[in-house]
Amino acid sequence: xxxxxxxxxxxxxxxxxxxxxxxxxxxxxxxxxxxxxxxxxxxxxxxxxxxxxxxxxxxxxxxxxxxxxxxxxxxxxxxxxxxxxxxxxxxxxxxxxxxxxxxxxxxxxxxxxxxxxxxxxxxxxxxxxxxxxxxxxxxxxxxxxxxxxxxxxxxxxxxxxxxxxxxxxxxxxxxxxxxxxxxxxxxxxxxxxxxxxxxxxxxxxxxxxxxxxxxxxxxxxxxxxxxxxxxxxxxxxxxxxxxxxxxxxxxxxxxxxxxxxxxxxxxxxxxxxxxxxxxxxxxxxxxxxxxxxxxxxxxxxxxxxxxx
Length: 308
Ligand SMILES: NC(=O)c1ccc[n+]([C@@H]2O[C@H](COP(=O)([O-])OP(=O)(O)OC[C@H]3O[C@@H](n4cnc5c(N)ncnc54)[C@H](O)[C@@H]3O)[C@@H](O)[C@H]2O)c1
Ligand SMILES: O=C(O)C[C@H](O)C(=O)O
Hints:
By secondary structure, this protein is of the alpha/beta class. It has helices at residues 10-22, 37-46, 49-52, 92-109, 122-133, 145-160, 200-211, 213-221, 227-241, 286-303; strands spanning 2-6, 27-32, 57-62, 73-76, 114-117, 140-142, 167-168, 171-173, 180-182, 188-189, 192-193, 246-255, 261-272, 275-279. It has 10 helices and 14 strands. The two termini are 33 Å apart. Bound molecules: nicotinamide-adenine-dinucleotide and (2S)-2-hydroxybutanedioic acid. This is Malate dehydrogenase. It is an enzyme of class 1 (oxidoreductase).
């Protein structure tokens, strides 16, 4: 199983590291446009192999896509991250051109590759890959909900003073500061609804903190986060590589599900060897439906900025 990670920056390197440590892929190729950068990251990571106990072979490439040939899965992390005070949507001007070129180059050498889009604004970048490559929708997956759900569980555990392993919960909708829809009414601690443990006000605070999770970290770090994003991507790559049939909220092209069409937005899907094997259309409350509709309107507005 060969995996390519485009972008050897913070998220790309973290993603490659977690994939290697989990030791399910035979080969990871990291590619970056910056001369020598991917090769350096790959060599540094390979020098952790004997310490961390993995056999995955990691190599680097400076913009040579021939080295990515016959990849099963490719992760696109290339592009600029936001700085404190910015929204993800403001990155579209630079990142759209990068994502378009990168996805086209990947497909020249790996025509059957499954693409995971990470670069922001992620839902719109996922839509762009659909519109410009024309490959089947099961092979284009946007990563956002897996990360947002991990942050939701972190905030729920914090509020309940509970171990995170007790918590289950999911965030759907657009991967933006205002567009995320944390499903507080569905979240549980060991099968008991979290509303049994937390007041409505505290639950609202958890949802609000979850939605600005990326912005909070960007303010603290001066650039956006990488550990949890890298871990989220690696879990999705593993689900596909190992045909796990696991459920993650992912950005996917909708054809009527959730009452939405011609939009990529976060909804629960099953990930297995074919990529997105099923979209799960769960019943939402009227309030959640209204939030999802508003979120979709935001993503559609950003999609309108694309030059297709
Ligand atoms: N979807 C999510 O949940 C999520 C999470 C974290 C970050 N992100 C996004 O991921 C992107 C990367 O973030 P980062 O922190 O790793 O940034 P970074 O600046 O650390 O790394 C980006 C890398 O992309 C490379 N690059 C630029 N153009 C390229 C091209 N044409 N081909 C190959 N490589 C190219 C750069 O040289 C750089 O090394 C950003 O857009 C960020 O907003 C998304
Ligand atoms: O917040 C960002 O800009 C990066 C990423 O989308 C995140 O949620 O960490």
